[in-house]
């Protein structure tokens, strides 16, 4: 009852919960002041010094800690954690995240509307507040990859009609939007006609093409690599969502000095399990930004009130009378490790102890049998030179995916490789390169194959269905026998991650829910993933961000060159390029 808030302030009835002695970070006037906070039911009723006539049923000594709102992540993907939503909720509540805006385009790529409905059901009773968006761009680059679903305006209408949908998920086909392509514009229009929130992904757009993207009503972007682009987008009315990989001293300087600061947010986007468990969630992104020079009060605003207003959650994001009581207490404003987390007026985490449990959800049987794929053969992992006029001893000029061992951005390179005979067939001699094969897992007998440089020491194989967007079966390796062993085990497990070497499986992580999610406890899943990464290192795999490498090499919207189930793709120019450019006589 509303009247109880007034009565509690006047001392006529007790507050349900009263927090004493905290330093409130006020997102409305950018101040920090010592105060008390009184809560009635799920709402804040009072912010000020407790009066002698006021009382409370439950009281908590804040011990002079900083109090600010629960964190709101306005752009993320639950599936990137590999955890079920229930396990994810229990993990991030400890880290101060109380609301997330989840775009489940990973699971919808695999399972279509069935996957979206399942995610809505799996998240609706969690202690973590989850706002589910309707994925907009499936496949991420239509015509250049195949997934288990395709979104047009008709499918978007069906998704937007589902109860609980919060808006349109990130529009990734930015080139299609800038060119005015009818299919993606039709999808956007279906949501715009309803007055829905429209999320964007405009990593390569500037100038007139960025304006075209904004002109269709999309007003957010979480792929902002420079402070210059941040300022350009703010000037066009975008909400700019900065993720960890975009943080730098230059970016933070722009965030501090931007003339408009109410449309800047910090987000996680994708947080692989090891980074989530070892470093944190949105609290880690904020702490890193602060370490690079971001004003801590701005960091609070960029993770609370700004995302709340972006998502039209007008009773979240601030600590003031009438607001939903999502509150966290932290000792250090430069390193956010909560001691206490309160959600809707209830303490869910205190002094290292999680005080609630999230309700688990039984995913539909169809989501546990999503691998519609025939097992590959050894020949599928060789690069054939049959039928192109080649003979043994000739030299092939080949397009190569160049990667630097640090970034997930790739570049096109060239190499000259000899044609050899193997098992009676003419193939390329790929000894010094890592092969990458992408198999369609949705019933189409097609696969793409390519070569990746910079992995000279890698002597094993990895197969994976957990990736980005289409989630086809991707296999990396030098030895076809190892690649086949890894691929077969992933298929047997109905999806997941496998490393193999010397013809046998080393580590396997079954991901039976759509080939993306595990029901294992987070600690057990982390242990398995750590063992997997250790096995890759033991087999000579070297990359600063190994999981990001494995999961983005088949991503059709990730510049500059990638491989999909349809072949080698020039992402920038949206065209397939041949693996073998030409054949010349002679030897190297």
In words, what does this structure look like?
- This protein is an alpha/beta fold.
- 26% of the residues lie in helices and 29% in strands.
- The chain contains 17 helices and 30 strands.
- The strands form six sheets. Strands 1, 2, 3, 4, 5, 14, 15, 16 and 17 form a nine-stranded mixed beta sheet that branches.
- Strand 8 (129-134), helix 5 (153-160) and strand 9 form a beta-alpha-beta unit.
- Helix 3 packs across helix 4.
- It is elongated, with a radius of gyration of 26 Å.
- The termini are far apart.
- The mean pLDDT is 95.
Provide a quick synopsis of the model:
The protein is about 25% helix and about 30% strand. The protein has 17 helices and 30 strands. The model has no long low-confidence stretch (mean pLDDT about 95).
């Amino acid at each position: 009852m509303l009247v109880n808030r007034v009565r509690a302030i006047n001392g006529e009835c007790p507050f349900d919960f009263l927090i004493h002695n905290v330093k409130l970070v006020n997102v409305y006037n950018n101040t920090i002041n010592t105060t008390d906070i009184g809560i009635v039911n799920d709402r804040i009723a009072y912010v000020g010094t407790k009066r002698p006539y006021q009382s409370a049923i439950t009281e908590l000594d804040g011990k002079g800690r900083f109090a600010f709102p629960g964190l709101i992540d306005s752009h993320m993907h639950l599936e990137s954690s590999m955890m079920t939503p229930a396990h994810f909720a229990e993990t991030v509540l400890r880290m101060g995240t109380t609301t997330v805006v989840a775009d489940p385009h990973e699971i919808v790529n695999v399972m279509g509307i069935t996957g979206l409905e399942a995610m809505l059901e799996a998240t609706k009773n969690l202690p973590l507040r989850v706002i589910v968006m309707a994925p907009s761009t499936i496949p991420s680059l239509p015509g250049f990859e195949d997934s288990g679903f395709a979104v047009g305006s008709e499918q978007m209408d069906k998704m937007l009609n589902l109860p609980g949908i919060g808006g349109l998920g990130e529009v990734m086909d930015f080139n299609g939007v800038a060119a005015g392509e009818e299919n993606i514009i039709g999808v956007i229009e279906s949501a715009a006609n309803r007055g829905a929130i429209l999320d964007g992904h405009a990593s390569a757009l500037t100038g007139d093409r960025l304006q075209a993207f904004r002109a269709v009503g999309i007003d957010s972007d979480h792929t902002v690599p420079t402070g210059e682009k941040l300022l350009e987008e703010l000037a066009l009315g975008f909400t700019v969502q900065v993720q960890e990989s975009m943080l730098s001293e230059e970016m933070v300087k722009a965030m501090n000095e931007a003339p408009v600061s109410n449309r800047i947010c910090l987000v996680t986007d994708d947080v692989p399990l090891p980074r989530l468990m070892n470093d944190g969630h949105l609290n880690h992104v904020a702490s890193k930004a602060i370490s690079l020079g971001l004003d801590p009060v701005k960091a609070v605003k960029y993770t609370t009130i700004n995302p709340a207003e972006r998502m039209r959650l007008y009773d979240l994001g601030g600590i003031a009378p009438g607001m939903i009581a999502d509150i966290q207490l932290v000792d250090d404003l430069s390193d956010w490790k909560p001691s206490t987390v309160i959600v809707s007026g209830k303490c869910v985490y205190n002094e290292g102890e999680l005080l609630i449990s999230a309700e688990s959800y039984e995913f539909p049987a169809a989501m546990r049998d999503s691998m519609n794929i025939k097992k590959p053969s050894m020949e599928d992992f060789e690069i054939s030179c049959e039928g192109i006029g080649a003979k043994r001893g000739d030299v092939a000029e080949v397009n190569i995916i160049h990667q630097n061992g640090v970034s997930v951005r790739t570049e096109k390179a060239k190499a000259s490789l000899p044609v050899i005979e193997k098992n009676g067939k003419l193939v390329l001699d790929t000894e010094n390169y890592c092969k990458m094969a992408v198999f369609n897992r949705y019933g189409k007998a097609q696969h793409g194959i390519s070569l990746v440089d910079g992995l000279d020491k890698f002597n094993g194989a990895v197969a994976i269905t957990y990736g980005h967007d289409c989630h086809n079966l991707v296999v990396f390796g030098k030895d076809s026998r190892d690649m086949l062993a890894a691929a077969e085990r992933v298929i047997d497990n109905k999806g997941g991650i496998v490393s193999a070497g010397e013809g046998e499986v080393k580590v396997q992580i079954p991901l039976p829910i759509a080939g993306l999610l595990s029901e294992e406890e987070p600690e057990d899943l982390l242990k398995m993933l750590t063992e997997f990464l250790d096995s890759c290192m033991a087999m000579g795999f070297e990359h600063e961000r190994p999981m990001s490498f494995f999961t983005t090499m088949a991503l059709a919207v990730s510049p500059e060159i990638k491989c999909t189930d349809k072949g080698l793709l020039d992402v920038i120019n949206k065209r397939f390029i041949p693996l073998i450019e030409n054949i010349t006589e002679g030897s190297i």
